[in-house]
Design a protein that fits this description.
Length: 266
């Protein structure tokens, strides 16, 4: 459990111009500057925020871990002493050619603290992206707590967030491009994942029009009891909340869900 009792978090709910990397990064960093000016130390962005799902030009959109998106996020994080969580299209050479992954990244004070490759690509994504093969929390050594990162479709799999919680995550983070008309599903599941795991949950979604879909936003920050602390509408916006990670211990003592699991049955 955390050595830092609380942290002010911000969700950067932004529209994305598909395949327009430079414009998206500039917008994201401008919104990030507003967030840190308001005191935020933990910044969460939508899934593949710098390109969207740029299928038609995926080779140009894909990057290595030293690519433009991660490099610029690291620079901002170092200058502003903050944590940034996002995903990008990763390309990696293999024996069969180029492989692509939806790579979740957590940057702390200018350094990549950890990565997570999306393990559950959704529908068309399977034609372009390989699946990750590991689910694990990401440790933030300077802040002494851990992030349980999942990506979009994985919100529908309670096993993912439960494994992240069992492995000691202090905060659950979901980054997404959850499209219309699934707003009621998004809201229900983001709250449920917090309640069932008794963990704070930051869920950041895309907003606006894409090449193939439109996006409703609805980014949300939920506490360990399932109380909605902040929630966005369907416009570009920042939402903020102070996350009390130490409260998890008290809540799990009061309602011992984890102790009462029947691991002999499930």
């Amino acid at each position: 459990m955390s050595g830092k009792s609380s942290i002010k978090a911000a969700c950067i709910q932004m529209s994305i111009s598909d395949c327009n990397k430079q414009s998206n990064i500039e917008k994201a960093l401008a919104m990030a500057k507003d967030a840190v000016s308001a005191g935020a130390e933990l910044l969460v962005f939508p899934e593949v925020f710098s390109t969207g799902f740029c299928y038609d030009n995926i080779e140009m959109s894909g990057e290595t871990e030293s690519g433009e998106t991660i490099r610029k996020m690291c620079d901002f994080s170092k200058q502003n002493e903050c944590v940034m969580i996002f995903s990008t299209i990763e390309k990696q050479m293999s024996s069969s050619g180029l492989d692509y992954y939806n790579l979740g990244v957590c940057v702390e004070d200018g350094h990549v603290a950890g990565t997570y490759r999306k393990t559950h690509p959704f529908k068309r994504e399977k034609q372009y992206f390989a699946s990750g093969d590991s689910i694990h929390p990401i440790s933030l050594p300077k802040r002494e707590f851990t992030i349980g990162l999942q990506i979009c479709y994985e919100l529908r799999f309670p096993e993912v967030s439960r494994k992240l919680a069992l492995m000691g995550s202090d905060i659950l983070v979901t980054i997404a491009e959850f499209p219309n008309p699934r707003g009621h599903i998004w809201r229900s599941l983001t709250i449920a994942r917090a309640i069932e795991n008794q963990i704070p949950h930051i869920a950041c979604n895309r907003v606006g029009e894409g090449s193939d879909s439109s996006f409703f936003g609805g980014s949300i920050i939920v506490n360990q009891l399932g109380d909605v602390m902040e929630e966005a509408d369907n416009s570009e916006s920042l939402i903020f909340s102070t996350i009390d990670v130490e409260r998890t211990i008290k809540i799990r003592n009061e309602i011992p869900v984890f102790d009462d699991r029947r691991t002999d049955l499930y």
